[in-house]
Structure formats: C-alpha cells, structure tokens
Amino acid sequence: MTPFKSEWTALACYPTVPSDAVRGVDTRLEREPSGSLTLRYVLRADMLHVRIPPQAPSIRTDGLWAHTCFEAFIAPAAGAGYYELNFSPSRQWAIYSFEAYRQGMSPTDVTVPPKLTVRAFDDRLELDASILLDDLKGLQAARTLKLAVTAVVEDDGGTLSYWALKHAPGKPDFHHTDGFALELPGDLMGQPK
C-alpha cells in the first residue's frame, strides 16, 4: 500500500450550537503501508472550560458521543453500508457497522483494538487514533473510501458543539451522506488504482 498523509483540515462548527470555549478542531489522516489508518485530532480551546472524560481502561464503550468525543465515519464509495468510529479522550473507543443510513447498527469485532494516544495542554487537546482497516471487513473490496471526520465537544456547562468537515442540511447529523466529504486514494485497501 502506498503511504498517504492529508493536509491539516479545520472542522466547521455547526452554526446553531457554537462554543465560546473552543477556537477550533483540526484533523489530519495518515495511512501506513501496514494497513493502519491514523486519525489525528487537535482540539484548540480554553481547556478549563471543556469537559474531558477522565482516563479509563482502553476498552469498547457505548455512548461516547454524549460527551467530548472524536469520530469518523467510513464508507466504500459505492454501497449503503458504513462504519462509525468513536474515540474518547478517556481512551475508550467504539466501532459500529451500519447496513444503510442509521439502519442495521451492530458493534464491530476487531482483532486489534484502536490505539489511542492523548496529549493534554492548557490550550489544546491532541488525540491520535490508529486502526487496522483490514478489521473493517465491509471496506475490503472498496477501491475508494469516503470519510466524514467529526467531533463532539462538551463545554463546562454541559452544552455540546458539533464539528465536521461538512455538515448536512438540517439538524446536526454526522451519519448523513453529505458529510462524507473526504475521499481516500484508490489503493487504500490494497486494490489497484
């Protein structure tokens, strides 16, 4: 596989729920020849006013999106199925597969759990999440992948702000196909271009 590294890209905040504490969320993707994909997130904020889940064992946990959480949605360019990946600053994680838009949700078994690295500073939080793409069986035949890269940030008052490369029309909805704005190179899964 050919290595791939995207440019740093700013996520946009959903306009009706801005956060005074957050200055921005930036992301970058890196793919290694080994088949792993690393999603890098930088939350730039006054960290005294952002709720960060406390450190916990790095295990699969549901409901991570209800608090500060970094996410990605990955789909083959053709087909209705996709995966939702949740990465908490607590180091907990979850991966779900969907048969179609918000339908047929089930936890995804992986042979190697995501590796999460978290670094906290006064003015930012950095999270790197590395996953083995081969564990996402529904992507293996895909020549091209589409991604929605997103984040949920909880402020110290409990209000959630929603960040994405691209927001779908209407209420915040990270599952909507309009948000799958990033396309990865054709040989991502070892397929010829």
Tell me what the structure shows.
This protein has 193 residues and is mainly beta. It has a single domain (4-184), classed as Immunoglobulin-like, CATH 2.60.40.1190. 0% of the residues lie in helices and 44% in strands. It has strands at residues 4-5, 9-13, 22-31, 36-45, 50-51, 69-76, 82-87, 93-98, 106-107, 115-120, 124-132, 145-155, 160-164, 182-184. Strands 1, 2, 3, 4, 5, 6, 7, 8, 9, 10, 11, 12, 13 and 14 form a 14-stranded antiparallel β-sheet that branches. A hairpin with a 3-residue loop joins β10 and β11.
One letter per element, helices H and strands E, the order comes to EEEEEEEEEEEEEE
CATH hierarchy, class: Mainly Beta
Rounded radius of gyration (Å): 16 Å
Low-confidence stretches: none
Number of strands: 14
Given the C-alpha coordinates, what overall shape results?
A: globular
Oligomerization: single chain
Largest sheet: 14 strands, antiparallel
